[in-house]
Amino acid sequence: MKKENIIKKIEGSNLSEEEKKEIIHIIELYNQNKIQEALFRLIKLMSIGKDILDWFDIT
Predict the structure, then answer these.
(1) CA triple 44-48-49, angle to 5 deg
(2) What mean pLDDT is reported for the chain?
(3) Which of 18, 36, 40, 52 has the greatest CB tally within 10 Å of its CB?
(4) Neighbour-count burial for 19-44, b at 16+ CB within 10 Å, e otherwise
(5) In the chain, what's the furthest Cα-to-Cα distance?
(6) Distance from C-alpha of 16 to C-alpha of 34, rounded to nearest angstrom
(7) Nearest to 30 by CA among 57, 54, 6
(8) What is the mean pLDDT of residues 16-28?
(9) Is there a contact between 10 and 19 (Cβ–Cβ < 8 Å)?
(10) What is the pTM of this model?
(11) Where are the domains of the chain?
(12) What are the backbone dihedrals phi and psi of residue 47, each rounded to the nearest 5 degrees, phi first?
């Protein structure tokens, strides 16, 4: 699926504006080949993110 279509679906979703912005930012990072930063932000966005970050000692 094209990036533009994914972003349109996200913008039309019932997520909060803050969540939408963060998800779109993650997509942009991924497209810029900044995979490590995108993955870090994705983990933080997930509900289990804190536990994973603590497990890997990332803060």
Answers:
(1) 20
(2) 85
(3) 40
(4) ebebbeebbebbeeeeeeebebbbbe
(5) 35
(6) 24
(7) 6
(8) 91
(9) no
(10) 0.73
(11) 3-55
(12) -65, -25
**Strands annotated E in 1-59:** none
Residue whose tokens read 């930012």:
25
In the numeric block, the tokens 């993955």 are attached to 39
C-alpha to C-alpha distances, 24 to 4, 7, 37, 57, nearest whole angstrom: 10, 6, 13, 26
Nearest to 7 by CA among 20, 34, 32, 31: 20
CA 53, CA 40: separation in Å to the nearest integer? 9
Q: How many CB atoms lie within 10 A of CB 54?
A: 10
CB atoms within 10 A of CB 15: 13
d(CA 33, CA 56): 22
